[in-house]
């Protein structure tokens, strides 16, 4: 089976009085439109890994994630789409939620593991599976092949930008974008908003991907307390942005990203006439993990 599908991810300019006042132009690359469940950058990271599995006659995918992982759901949906079976190791105790329920719906077998065993992902894989029959896919789709898939985003761009912004978890996506910028010889500054606390570890990740860390600017002040942590400020920002633009965001990744870009614009980080591209990496099912927080917000 051909492991691919047409990519629909338009570039759209977003208007806001703030942007006119500060004399910047802001565009979104709508990777959230690529697929509802094989979302955004997760498809880009999976593509060459799945092609590699197919070439090696491997038809079972094994991967890892937290209980709200966009990568688990993307892997489950991609497995079902392209004729693979899949297993997902989930960090933490046996629970149920909307994302895990959808993983099961796509046929993924879920195995819950304690945090200690989860840390030894390779061991966990090797004790249950044979690496000639099953593909080990790291958490978040982190891989060199995943990075190569993310480089393809550059092939699609309709114009040049002064800055490209993307949220980072493992840093695979931003590393791919930076590699693409170098390959095309563009002057675009690649910038990322890490969603984890103490994200300096990303510098080593970039190096391991063969990307010079000096080519990626980290903005370390927008993690809101760490991975999947939020604050009322962030939730209120998301509510206002979504109601104003019709572009959906969630608090784990894209909410922090867009909050950071707005904050930097307000602080005059950008030169006048700058053109900024924000990568909307999708992952919108993550919103379902924050229903209570958003409902509580309505009462304050
Ligand atoms: C996984 C994910 C990211 C992080 O991508 P990395 O390549 O791990 O840095 C960003 N945004 C969304 C919506 C994601 O699901």
From TrEMBL:
Pfam families: PALP
Domain Tryptophan synthase beta chain-like PALP: 20-282
Protein name, as recorded: 1-aminocyclopropane-1-carboxylate deaminase
Lineage of the species this protein comes from: Bacteria, Pseudomonadati, Bacteroidota, Sphingobacteriia, Sphingobacteriales
GO molecular function, one term: D-cysteine desulfhydrase activity
Domain of life: Bacteria
Keyword Nucleotide-binding appears in the UniProt entry: no
Cleavable signal peptide: none
List of residues that carry N6-(pyridoxal phosphate)lysine: 42
Alphabetical keyword list: Pyridoxal phosphate
Family: Belongs to the ACC deaminase/D-cysteine desulfhydrase family.
Cofactor(s) of this protein: pyridoxal 5'-phosphate
Catalytic residue positions: 69 (nucleophile)
């Amino acid at each position: 089976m051909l492991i691919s599908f047409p990519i629909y991810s338009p570039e759209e300019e977003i208007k806001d009085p703030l942007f006119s006042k500060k004399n910047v132009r802001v565009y979104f690359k709508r990777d959230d439109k690529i697929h509802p469940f094989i979302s955004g950058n997760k498809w880009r990271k999976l593509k060459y890994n799945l092609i590699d599995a197919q070439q090696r006659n491997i038809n079972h995918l094994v991967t890892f994630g937290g209980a709200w992982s966009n990568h688990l759901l993307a892997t489950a949906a991609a497995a079902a789409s392209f004729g693979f079976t899949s297993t997902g190791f989930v960090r933490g105790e046996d629970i149920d939620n909307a994302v895990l329920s959808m993983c099961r719906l796509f046929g993924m077998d879920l195995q819950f593991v304690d945090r200690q065993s989860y840390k030894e992902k390779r061991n966990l894989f090797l004790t249950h599976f044979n690496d000639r029959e099953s593909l080990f896919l790291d958490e978040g789709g982190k891989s060199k092949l995943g990075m190569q898939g993310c480089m393809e985003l550059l092939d699609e761009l309709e114009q040049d930008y002064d800055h490209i912004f993307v949220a980072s978890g493992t840093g695979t996506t931003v590393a791919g974008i930076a590699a693409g910028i170098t390959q095309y010889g563009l002057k675009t500054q690649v910038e990322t908003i890490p969603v984890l606390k103490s994200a300096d570890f990303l510098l080593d990740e970039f190096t391991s991907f063969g990307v010079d860390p000096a080519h990626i600017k980290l903005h370390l002040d927008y993690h809101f307390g760490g991975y999947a942590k939020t604050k009322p400020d962030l939730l209120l920002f998301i509510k206002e942005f979504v109601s104003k633009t019709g572009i959906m965001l969630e608090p784990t990744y894209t909410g922090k990203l867009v909050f950071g870009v707005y904050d930097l614009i307000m602080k005059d980080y950008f030169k006048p006439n700058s053109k900024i591209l924000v990568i909307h990496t999708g992952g919108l099912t993550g919103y379902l993990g924050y229903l209570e927080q958003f409902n509580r917000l309505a009462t304050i």
